[in-house]
Amino acid sequence: MSLLPHFFASAVVIIGILPWAIETAQLRIYHGSLNNYTATELEEPLKLLPFINKSIKSMFYVFGFSETPESTDTTLILSAYLKKNYTNVLLVDWLKEASKEFVGEELSYAFKVVPLARYVGIQLGKALISLSENGLDPNMTHLVGHSLGAQVAGFAGETTREKNIWLPRITGLDPAGPLFQGVVNNNGLNPSRAKFVDVLHTDPRRYGVISSIGSVDFWANCNLEVQPGCTVDNSDSENSFCSHQRSCGYFSEAILNPQSFPAVQASNCSSWGQNTSNSAVITFLGDAVDISARGNFYFSTNSGSPYSKGRNGLVPNK
Ligand SMILES: *[C@@H]1O[C@H](CO)[C@@H](O)[C@H](O)[C@H]1NC(C)=O
Ligand SMILES: *[C@@H]1O[C@H](CO)[C@@H](O)[C@H](O)[C@H]1NC(C)=O
Ligand SMILES: *[C@@H]1O[C@H](CO)[C@@H](O)[C@H](O)[C@H]1NC(C)=O
Ligand SMILES: *[C@@H]1O[C@H](CO)[C@@H](O)[C@H](O)[C@H]1NC(C)=O
Ligand SMILES: *[C@@H]1O[C@H](CO)[C@@H](O)[C@H](O)[C@H]1NC(C)=O
Ligand SMILES: *[C@@H]1O[C@H](CO)[C@@H](O)[C@H](O)[C@H]1NC(C)=O
Predict the structure, then answer these.
(1) Which residues of 202-229 are buried (b: 16+ CB within 10 A; e: fewer)?
(2) Which of 18, 62, 286, 313 has its CA at a distance of 20 to 30 angstroms from the CA of residue 257?
(3) What is the C-alpha to C-alpha distance for residues 123 and 90, in angstroms, rounded to an integer?
């Protein structure tokens, strides 16, 4: 009872913060390394067009709640793509919108960051429309988002589809679960947001979505309460994000070594590992994924980097 006035007062404070955070999102393109980039307002994406090499794909990365361009998760993904050199590497920098405020994690998330995720997603969609009207082939784009960033990417795909532009691919790295499933579902990422949606689940019991929301859903170490090497932690401390963050660890490794995470199709966690027939359907996490594959795919990992177990990862850890 006594918490209720506090709750509403905080909500009012947050709503006061909204206008300040809005319209600050930036778009960056990196020139071969993390410390050399050009940035522009997300609303003025055409300024980056001269820096985009149109003969290769453009990967747009969106980080999650309370993350930044310098977060470990962010730099893991960006540096993997920069190292491979087969895509233009862009970043949606929504630092201010994504930040938590002094009123606390949960209130910031619910009243500020989730509404702004939708707003930034629509802005990103409009930026992609504008770029495509000015010479960037939308078929040469790929959106990758972690946590709430995956939901942002979903809203972007929804926005481009309103202009009949189907993005070829959106990758969700442990898409944020809270307020995106169950009773309060903000309808972010789902299979209709792009021609192909690949999703990696690493923390379905806590910060990630619990159900399949992609064309292909990868379930790492399914049935385990936390990822190998992480410990059960019900606080909201840094440590409690261990499994959620593993999605970036696994995916960046998959980008660097394209066939390092073969994954096998199964209908659910409990049937994974039961069917060892040679006809089992296998695809790969990362850019070697078969875009005609559909359904749930499973793999197990090591507890530390390198996480890949190669083909030994096709069965659950003992
Ligand atoms: C940064 O990238 C630009 C464009 O590729 C290049 O001209 C410039 O030399 C780079 N700067 C540094 C310090 O590497
Ligand atoms: C664009 O990418 C292609 C393929 O990697 C490369 O051959 C070409 O040199 C690049 N163009 C520029 C202007 O960097
Ligand atoms: C990577 O791209 C840069 C230009 O951005 C080019 O100078 C370099 O040769 C490329 N490296 C490889 C391995 O393709
Ligand atoms: C993109 O690919 C689709 C087929 O998947 C094709 O119909 C469309 O013309 C392509 N768009 C461009 C701009 O090349
Ligand atoms: C898991 O999949 C198997 C094989 O399709 C099925 O028989 C079983 O009922 C499923 N289990 C659950 C819990 O859904
Ligand atoms: C085993 O997997 C293959 C390929 O996915 C499938 O055709 C077959 O029906 C499965 N067998 C059982 C017993 O689930």
Answers:
(1) bbbebbbbeebbbbbbbbbbbebebbbe
(2) 62
(3) 15
Q: Give the model confidence (pLDDT) of 194-248 as tens digits.
A: 999 999 999 999 999 999 999 999 999 998 899 999 999 888 788 889 999 999 9
Residue from 31, 35, 37 whose mutation best tests the ligand 1 pocket (most atoms within 8 A of CB):
31
Torsion of CA 48, 51, 52, 53, to 10 degrees: 170
Coil/strand/helix, residue 228: coil
State how far the Cα of 13 lies from the Cα of 27, in Å rounded to an integer: 28
Which helix (H) or strand (E) segment is 131 a member of? helix 114-133
CA distance 51 to 56: 12
CATH number at residue 18: 3.40.50.1820
Structure-block tokens of residue 109:
């998330």
Instruction: Provide the residue range defining the domain that includes 297.
Output: 6-314
CB 230 within 8 A of CB 242: yes
Ligand 3 centroid to Cα of residue 149, in Å, is 28
Q: Decide if 1 is inside a domain.
A: no
User: What total of structural domains would you count in the chain?
Assistant: 1
> Does the annotation count 201 as an active-site position?
no
- Any domain includes 120: yes
In a domain, 292, yes or no: yes
The reply to whether ligand 1 has any atom less than 6 angstroms from the CB of 271 is no
Helices (H) and strands (E) in the chain, counts: 7, 13
Angle at CA of residue 136, ends 98 and 176, nearest 5°: 25
Q: Is 290 a catalytic residue?
A: no
Average pLDDT of the chain?
92
Q: What is the number of residues in the chain?
A: 318
- The 10 Å CB-count burial string (b at 16+, else e) for 82-112 is beeeebbbbbbbbbebbbebebeeebbbbbb
The answer for residues whose C-beta is within 8 angstroms of residue 19's C-beta and 6 or more apart is none
